[in-house]
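Reopening this one. Same input as before:
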Amino acid sequence: MTNQNIQEKIEQERENAREACDISGANSKECAAAWDAVEELQAEASHQSKTKPKNSFETYCDDNPDALECRVHDN
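Same output, byte for byte:
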């Protein structure tokens, strides 16, 4: 998921959570579960924002793991 997709999903889940709480009550299990889903998505968005993007060499090695310059030697 891209950061934009996650942000859209968070907004969608927020709306679902508000609706669930309006229908079932603020202290209901459904309300709590809906807000848990929002929190999980927010945690994922936070995690992704901290992930360092790969440089071109890392991308090359992902695409060509058998290339000589990508091999890791343990001595």
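So the earlier flakiness isn't reproducible anymore. For the record, Residues 3-24 form the longest helix (22 residues).
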